[in-house]
Specification:
With 242 residues, the protein is of the alpha/beta class. The chain is 36% helix and 23% strand. Bound molecules: S-adenosylmethionine.
Length: 242
């Protein structure tokens, strides 16, 4: 019997109360904090960022503030994760090196920077520039060089390709940066075992929780925004999924 515990709160507060060394895999997709960067540039994307992210209030910190928030996040993560536990954290490619430096100061061993490629991205500005179709993810193991890696002899590339989140999944998630379920399942399958515990401290509409539950993992999810929290709750608990 697996357990699901989700919280509508600031992740730093909740992680301070979780049991030390109780998490096997942290799988999370925090705000990339590109709101200010994009707003200050004269692009169509600037407008989109303002509408979806800047105005959402969680994507527009200045760089120093963001760095400090990630420092607090890795500090709490180092308390709650087991030795040998893994972390996958999605991030803008622009921020990868900074994040690795912060993670290493908290005992996380850096393994990989990988790419998620979307096969059908929005063809925005396709006649004047390269269409944005990728996001990065970083893979760390806490205080060990190797963690669970259920590859069964198969070779896994540092690259995963899926379509963008389907309309069927979006119907219930309604989050501007909702990830496809198959993407989260990929990491849960490979980096944890049934019965283990997955934490997503920035759970948004709860995609990690939906995937964790289907794969028989315990799940702890945290979301600060009440509206997204309610959506995550109904997706995870009431099985409102595509
Ligand atoms: C990129 S979204 C996650 C989307 C998610 N992967 C999904 O599929 O729906 C990041 C989320 O983190 C939440 N957030 C931002 N700061 C937070 C904090 N301090 N504690 C908890 N949640 C936070 C935001 O409200 C936002 O919904």
């Amino acid at each position: 019997m697996i357990s699901i515990n989700i919280y509508n709160d600031d992740c730093i507060e909740v992680m301070s109360r979780l049991e030390n060394g109780s998490i096997d895999l942290i799988l999370t997709d925090p705000p990339y904090n590109l709101g200010n960067f994009m707003k200050n540039r004269d692009t169509n994307l600037g407008k989109m960022r303002k509408n979806f992210f800047g105005d959402a209030g969680w994507d527009d910190m200045d760089f120093k503030e963001w760095e400090e928030s990630m420092n607090r996040f890795f500090d709490k993560s180092s308390n709650v994760i087991k030795t040998g536990g893994s972390m996958i954290i999605f991030m803008s490619i622009l921020k990868v090196e900074t994040l690795i430096k912060i993670a290493e100061t908290h005992g996380f061993y850096y393994k990989t920077t990988g790419i998620w490629h979307k096969t059908n991205p929005m063809p925005r500005n396709m006649n004047i520039q390269f269409v944005n179709s990728t996001e990065a993810w970083l893979y760390f193991v806490y205080k060990k060089r190797t963690g669970t890696f259920n590859n069964d002899g198969a070779m896994y590339h540092d690259f995963i390709e899926t379509s963008v989140t389907s309309n069927g999944e979006r119907r219930y998630g309604k989050h501007p940066t909702q990830k496809p379920e198959i993407l989260m399942s990929h990491f849960i399958d490979l980096l944890s075992n049934p019965g283990e515990t997955i934490l997503d401290p920035f759970m948004g509409s709860g995609t990690t929780g939906v995937a964790a539950k289907k794969l028989d993992r315990n799940f702890i999810g945290i979301e600060i925004d009440e509206c997204y929290f309610k959506i995550a709750k109904s997706r995870i608990n009431e099985d409102k999924q595509a």
